[in-house]
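Design job #97: recover the sequence.
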């Protein structure tokens, strides 16, 4: 009987380590008390967490395109500035917000309905062009001037799409009922 108890304790500790649980010296004693301690800790942790409502997604490309227009006009000034060539934080100040908005655009607009995007896709392209230009400035690459020209061209296309929404843009779909 004593041998069986020792074997079961050893087996439980080996299985516990294999499953990622820490090995304890008093395995048989702690196995009886740890479930209540763990559940108390989980309840305390859950009581401190606040549940936030999820952001409502939209496939309205015009709203995201207007956000993109505002953002690129704010951020391109940082790259046009002479000190951009020596600023090591271009990644955090410029490229990160561009990538965040571009990702959000792909999730909210592009994945829901690409027809809704229409000519506003040119604004998404200007986000990508500005990111490419910022990267070339940051890396001091030889194609900075070409990247800047590409960005300025794409920015003008975005401006035209925002100023003339009736040409080539379709209205957003009415949201479908939740599944």
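Job complete. Output follows.
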């Amino acid at each position: 009987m004593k041998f069986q108890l020792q074997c079961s304790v050893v087996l439980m500790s080996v299985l516990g380590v294999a499953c990622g649980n820490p090995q304890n010296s008093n395995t048989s004693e702690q196995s009886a008390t740890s479930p209540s301690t763990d559940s108390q800790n989980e309840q305390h942790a859950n009581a401190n967490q606040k549940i936030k409502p999820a952001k409502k997604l939209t496939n309205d490309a015009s709203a995201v395109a207007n956000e993109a227009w505002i953002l690129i006009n704010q951020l391109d000034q940082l790259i046009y500035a002479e000190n951009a060539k020596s600023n090591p934080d271009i990644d955090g100040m410029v490229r990160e917000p561009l990538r965040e908005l571009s990702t959000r655009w792909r999730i909210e607009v592009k994945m829901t309905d690409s027809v809704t995007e229409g000519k506003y896709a040119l604004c998404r392209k200007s986000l990508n062009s500005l990111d490419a230009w910022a990267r070339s400035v940051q890396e001091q690459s030889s194609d900075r001037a070409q990247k800047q020209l590409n960005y300025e061209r794409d920015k003008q296309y975005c401006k035209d799409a925002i100023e003339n929404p009736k040409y080539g843009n379709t209205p957003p779909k009415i949201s479908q009922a939740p599944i």
